[in-house]
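New to this. Please check this fold:
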Amino acid sequence: MLVLTRRVGESIVIANDVRVTVVALGNGRVKIGIDAPNGVSVDRSEIHERKLLEQDGSHVVESTTESGLHNRIANVLKPR
């Protein structure tokens, strides 16, 4: 996993046509904006996993999110 540091208003670009921008920080959350071409599907991971299970009941999807990771990131991003 690539981990990048960005400030509010800063972006990363994926594959030349997907732009992810940090919109706001607060209350232990990061709000991001995603600009992608019309044909590119963008989902939260839990929605993506649900869609895979609905498409084919035999898919077994294991979450890759570390427990508590969002809390550690939020603590780092809190204004001092």
